[in-house]
Amino acid sequence: MKKICLSFILTVTVITCCAQSLTIHANITGFKDSTQVILYESATQSNIDSTVIVNNKFSFKHKVTTEPANYWLEVRADGKLYYTIVMVGNDDVTLSGDKNDMPWNMKVKGPESERVFQLLYNDKLQVLHVQRDTLVMQAMSMHGDSAQIKSRLIWNKIKKIDSADRVLRNQFIHNHLNSYLALDELFYQKAMYTTDSLQHMYNSLLPKYKNSSYGKRIGVYLKVGDELKEGDNFVDFSGFDKNGKLHKVSEIKGRYVLLDFSGTYCGPCVMSVKDMRNLNKKYVDNLSIITVSQDVSKAMWMEGVNRDKPEWLSLWDGKGITGETSMKYGVMGIPDFCLIDPQGKIIARITGYSDGYLEKRISEILDKHPLP
Predict the structure, then answer these.
(1) Among candidate residues 111, 141, 165, the one where a domain is terminated
(2) Which domain holds residue 298?
(3) CATH code: domain of residue 17
(4) Residue range 262-290: average pLDDT?
């Protein structure tokens, strides 16, 4: 079972439009003074600001230069996970409540976009999330000989909750298609729709939403076709190395290729470098590693290159996780690894990182099928 390391605790989805200053005010009881809060931007996968809680209050002000954008507020407190979700437009958003009200009972005041957000996160969906969170905690706390059986029963209940959750989200998508939030949901629920249905929905979008980043990534998904899976032949792509030279995956002949889709400030991605360094030394004659940066910012990508000093190729195209390459390879989260054999067939996919697992899994495959 993979162990996924999560550094965030309080999650906020903030949607902003045009070039504005995003302002978040919070009055949340229950946290100690000087508890740190970090503002994280998911588009660039970076921490963009931080502050501390004083007398239950904290605030952020950040200049927004894009339309809709997702931000996370990250807090570490008492070794527990606290999170809440809000949506804000070109106005201030205010959160109030106690830490124990998170995630679903916080009071939120904001602009019109918050009303749309509440249409999705209504009482029915909130009840499902509370039930799911409770069951997950129960499953994680299981110990003893009967833990595996009891845990399996709990996860079967969670699957039923997830199915009901998808039904509610898809109802929202159909009823509010021309909204940023519905397009965001549609992207993550896209596997539930046929290509024809997605194309019809995309064609029916108003220009404002079709031309948004949310609309464009659905357009890219439709353009690239079915995502690659194990057993498929790889699809060639190109990117620039740190010296500005353009490379293609197809340039590598007669070797295994490990694609590493990762980002500079993704914690699990940074931890996986150790495994890749070991693999690179162990299979120097058989394996070529290519890091495919999901950073949109070139400067951010170069920060990672200079920090990690990879002894393998690191490529950047500036399109990030919603670009054609990542879409075709089905990258939904990072790190994501794809092993290609010398004949060009995808023979393994590994998503996420746990200590030593990447090295172990790739070694098993290469040791079992060594090159002549």
Answers:
(1) 111
(2) 238-368
(3) 2.60.40
(4) 95
Residue 143 confidence class, pLDDT cut points 50, 70, 90:
confident
Q: What is the CATH number of the domain that holds 331?
A: 3.40.30.10
3-class DSSP state for residue 48?
strand
Residue 194 lies in a domain: no
Is residue 361 within 8 Å of residue 348, measured between CB atoms? yes
Rounded Cα–Cα distance for residues 306 and 152 (Å): 44
Helix, strand, or coil here: 68?
strand
Q: What are phi and psi of 256, to 5 degrees?
A: -75, 145
Q: Is residue 219 part of a domain?
A: no
What is the distance between the alpha carbons of residues 297 and 318, in angstroms, rounded to a whole number?
A: 6
Residue 230 lies in a domain: no
Confidence band for 193, pLDDT divided at 50, 70 and 90? very high
Q: Using alpha carbons, list the distances in angstroms from residue 59 to 38, 99, 140, 308, 370.
A: 11, 16, 33, 33, 56
What residues does 337 pair with on adjacent strands? Answer: 260, 350
Tokens, residue 173: 């998508």
Q: Is residue 352 part of a domain?
A: yes
Tokens standing for residue 366: 């290469």
| Total-model pTM | 0.73
Taking phi first (over 0 means left), then psi (-120 to 50 degrees means alpha), and beta for anything else, what does residue 286 get? alpha
Number of folded domains that form the chain:
2
Helix (H) or strand (E) holding 281: helix 267-282
Extended strands (E) in the chain: 20-29, 36-41, 46-52, 57-64, 71-75, 92-98, 107-109, 238-240, 246-248, 256-262, 287-293, 313-315, 336-340, 346-351
Show Cβ contacts of residue 223 under 8 Å, excluding neighbours closer than 6 positions. Answer: 324
Residue that terminates a domain, selected from 67, 95, 111: 111
pLDDT band at residue 31 using 50, 70 and 90 as cut-offs = very high
